[in-house]
Design brief:
Layout: E1 4-5, H1 6-13, E2 24-25, E3 28-29, E4 40-42, H2 55-60, E5 65-68, E6 79-81, H3 85-97, E7 104-108, H4 113-125, E8 130-132, H5 142-147, E9 156-160, H6 168-176, E10 180-183, H7 191-194, H8 197-204, H9 206-209, E11 216-220, H10 226-232, E12 238-244, E13 252-254, E14 260-261, E15 267-273, E16 276-281, H11 288-302, H12 307-314, E17 325-328, E18 334-338, H13 344-359, E19 369-373, H14 382-395, E20 400-404, H15 409-415, E21 424-428, H16 431-437, E22 447-451, H17 459-465
Parallel strand pairs: 3-4, 4-5, 5-6, 7-9, 7-10, 8-9, 10-11, 11-12, 12-13, 18-22, 19-20, 19-22, 20-21
Antiparallel strand pairs: 1-2, 13-15, 14-15, 15-16, 17-18
Helix pairs in contact: 3-6, 4-11, 4-12, 11-12, 13-14, 14-15, 16-17
């Protein structure tokens, strides 16, 4: 963050401390375990923590001010009292973002948004100073914190925007003021909270409604909700269509018949950008990354980058952490770590990738192990979603299916309905039990997929497979 006078904070919050602030500040800090000296400490309140408990610590570590809900009489530094510090953080970030004239790319979608964001960041970062929101900074706290990292050196920003309900992406977009809005796919993640897939499309389209008249919407042409997304895009906003499709109406399209995979499961394909054909070979596994890469190249099209340079940078990207990350274990296994989150679309795609990696050119009837956990936040669609994955298991070539959690049992139940030869089955009630018992079920040199919703903590299983023990 650029150094700013403390008086600027008073203007933004429409609020002045009792003692008139002098000097400046170098950032907004919400955690005293991070660098505090020279920053203003903002006391966030959550279900399990309250930043007000650490105000004195923040002052002792060099904070030059504090944003609080309740004044602390022990502090000597200026205090701005606000009704809600979380909303104050958003307001500070919104006003700070207004100080910069640069493209801001907002990325949302049911699946693929983190990988797509990282791809865009890798592609743009090779040619421009680029701010990319870190890790999973995609909510009402993470997006403002990301924006506050902007400096005059940055030429573009890429922000992921997640949601748990209606109105949340609109809130984030009002803070970030994106000039480009990209939607990956409309799936069923969060259907428990939204109620329907069309509702999810409407929630994701909140990003589009906040684009400026001269902005750009980048939309998936193959989505069944493409028309809805187009209708929700403000009049005058430019639309770029992309997808894995032969549809020539797409400005950027990966040709389905051109997709090939190497022995490591990494795809190569031909992409048509504005009528010209280019070859792309990705360094990240999985067919789903063809869609993500096509979305990233649509950003290159929107920003009028050199496409050869954009593709060259994209080909160096090795995948987002915990999202189809291939790990070679000292125990002899090849582990597909895809345990960050799960939805039926991504589960099915991951099983297809497992088949490609496990086959390795050998004449085997079945190979590979799939360890699949519950998919959460699917509401009334949960039963059908797990059945859908079970049908994908029927078509797969895995040797062993391991389910983790009560919902995931539905995957095995549906798979067993098939008359085809099926893999062996095992079930564990939770990831802790699976981590304790999984090694006894495995053969040497297995290729193992681990995937489940974030709440399932499937990373503990990955840790054991990597020879690190359940403590990781």
């Amino acid at each position: 963050m650029n150094s700013l006078p403390l008086s600027w904070l008073s203007e933004v919050l429409n609020n002045s401390p009792q003692n008139t602030p002098n000097g400046g500040f170098t950032g907004i800090c919400t955690d005293t375990r991070q660098p505090v000296a020279g920053a203003v400490f903002l006391a966030l309140q959550g279900e399990n923590s309250d930043g007000h408990r650490f105000l004195k610590t923040a002052e002792e570590k060099g904070a030059v001010g504090a944003v609080v809900v309740e004044r602390n009489a022990e502090l000597t530094i200026p205090q701005w009292v606000v009704p809600d510090t979380r909303l104050a953080l958003g307001e500070i970030a919104r006003e700070y973002r207004r100080r910069f004239r640069l493209p801001v790319i907002g990325v949302t979608g049911s699946v693929g948004k983190t990988s797509t964001k990282e791809m865009i960041g890798a592609m743009l970062g090779a040619v421009l100073p680029t701010l990319v929101s870190p890790k999973n900074y995609n909510n009402e706290i993470g997006v403002p914190q990301s924006l506050l990292q902007l400096t005059p050196e940055h030429r573009v920003a890429v922000l992921e925007m997640g949601m748990r309900g209606m109105g949340q992406i609109e809130y984030l977009a009002r803070i970030a003021q994106p000039t480009i809005g990209l939607i990956t796919q409309i799936g069923v993640t969060h259907i428990e909270l939204i109620g329907s897939q069309e509702g999810i499309a409407l929630a994701k389209s909140e990003l589009l409604t906040q684009l400026p008249p001269d902005g750009t919407a980048i939309l998936p042409i193959t989505s069944p909700y493409a028309d809805l997304l187009e209708e929700r895009t403000p009049q005058g906003t430019h639309i770029i269509w992309y997808g894995v499709t032969d549809d020539e109406n797409a400005n950027v399209r990966a040709l389905p018949d051109s997709i090939r995979f190497d022995e490591g499961g990494k795809p190569s394909f031909n992409v048509v950008i504005d009528g010209a054909d280019y070859s792309v070979s990705l360094n990240a596994v999985g067919a789903h990354n063809v869609h993500n890469a096509t979305a990233a190249l649509a950003v290159a099209f929107a920003l009028v980058l050199d496409y050869e340079d954009a593709i060259a940078a994209l080909q160096l990207w090795e995948g987002a952490e915990g999202r189809m990350t291939v790990r070679d274990s000292p125990l002899g296994y090849r582990v597909l770590d895809d345990c960050y989150n799960a939805a039926p679309e991504s589960m099915t795609a991951s099983l297809a990738t497992l088949d490609r990696l496990a086959w390795r050119g050998r004449l085997l009837t079945r190979s590979g192990v799939a360890i699949l956990g519950d998919m959460r936040e699917l509401g009334a669609f949960a039963e059908e979603a797990h059945k859908q994955v079970g049908r994908a298991v029927q078509e797969s070539q895995i040797r062993l299916l391991v389910t983790v959690g009560a919902l995931a049992e539905g995957i095995a139940e549906e798979a067993r309905r098939s008359e085809k030869p099926l893999p062996a089955f095992a079930h564990f009630p939770n990831s802790e039990a699976c981590a304790a018992g999984i090694l006894t079920l495995l053969n040497e040199e297995e290729t193992i997929l681990v995937k489940g919703s974030r709440a399932m903590e499937m990373e503990s299983i990955v840790s054991v497979l990597m020879g690190k023990g359940s403590e990781g």
